[in-house]
Description:
alpha/beta, Rossmann fold, 20 helices, plastid, Starch_synth_cat_dom, glycosyltransferase
Amino acid sequence: IVFVTAEVSPWSKTGGLGDVCGALPAALAARGNRVVVVAPMYERYGDAHDTGHHSTFHLNHGDQHVRYFARYKDDVTYLFVAHPALERGGGGRIYGGSPGNPYHDNDFRFALLSMAAIESLLAVPWEDLFFGGGDAGAERMKRAYFETAPVFVANDWHAALVPLFLAARYQANAEWTLKPRREWGTDGAAASIARASCVTIVHNLFHLGIVAPDRYRSLGLPEENTEWFPALRWRWRDGGESMNFLKAGLATSSAAVLVSPSYANEVQTNELGCGMDKVLRSVGNFGSDVDLGFLNGMSGKLRGIVNGIDVDEWNPATDPHIPAHFDVGTSEKGVVERADGCTVWDVARGKAACKAALQRELGLEVDPNAPLVGFIGRLDYQKGVDVLLDVVPHIVHNGGQVVMLGSGDPGLEHGMRTMEQNHRGRAVGWVGFSVPMSHKITAASDILAMPSRFEPCGLNQLYALRYGTLPVAHATGGLRDTVRGRVGWPFAPCEPGALRRAMDRAMETYKASEGNTRLDSRWRRKQERAMTSDLSWNVAAEKYEKLMGKIAMDPP
Length: 556
């Protein structure tokens, strides 16, 4: 399994893409798969070694020379592509020098990544990386490796040219492009690429990879009058035309995955499809005049798989950021002293201690009976922050407290500050972001508010469930799939009245449990179900493994 991604944590990360590509490959490797992650080398990574191998290929009207650096960790081979065009991504400036100002040549940079990922199978001695050079059984294992058709995993538009390049530059013209490259096992490597498949994962449909059509020839593909250009063609409503990298990836992939089942359905609607709804509903006709049905059409090939979380980082029994540790397993014992000297409390006492500490730190009234409602996230229209701000006075009037953490839209930042001024001691708005504070709020809150207008997957609700913080969430996308009545309060539509009614139900359930530390209260039962849910990457990895296994059994 070869992941291709613009980000991989901990080396490069701007958001959830880096987290997923840092966690899912390791979960698949733990299940016995051989997994590679190919990502740009934005800056010199001290723990990655130079493999001494390189590749030269034609792209952007010239020969491009890339070098490969490698790091083997948690049974995953991380392969980093070094090229001058990628070095500008250091210091977190992966996509541009500043927010809203992308690099002018991002199309070339990520086309380069896609080509380098495919070429790596021909350039790098995988038997050394996987099996340790000199192993007497390496040759046998190498043959077994190449007998299995690899499955590439293209992540978002940055890697969406992988399946297109596989189909157009390698598999449709295999005699030309798969000539022997070096002495070791090239025939096996070439044959493996000829049978390779690709799954495209769409983490963020909002970013499509829109490129001017005159850049087509820079991709080294056949001329525009062939069948490949329509896979990229993107027509605007005003009659203009562009290229759409993500569309091309979907057109030429064996399957596409979105990050929750509900979101996979929602993006096929005009409201949430970001203009791609017809593509996602299609059966392979990606041009009005050219039928690409001989490729893998999307009919029946669209999947939704919910992300997991790092259950070691997000663990209330060991979290270094919170003042009191707690675990659902100690509910009946009250407290457990671990061998390392750490005290682990039952959920009720541990969360009460975390709440009191946060109330003191943020200047809230120290009120153990006040249901504390938390919000953590980007401040923008998508997250429904305006809806929550409308409901804050109602929450406070009914005895609750509110703490919000986030940054983004200046108007919403002002709204958070105004909220705090109007409800001193009962509401706090922290403008900015802090990892320790996000953990503290997750542990201390009784209720997490997630009124997102749309949410492909969502992670904060999963972190909250892990800490026994019960979500009140708009029933959309991944929130619909993960926040059900057994562990929270889903609501719809996304408007203040519906959120207010759901919040009332949550606060009433919380108040009914006051003074009741037994597990027979409705609140405690919801907490127990939430905290004992398997939120790890194991569940998602098993689903991905089944999908990739099915694809590998039926390569192009």
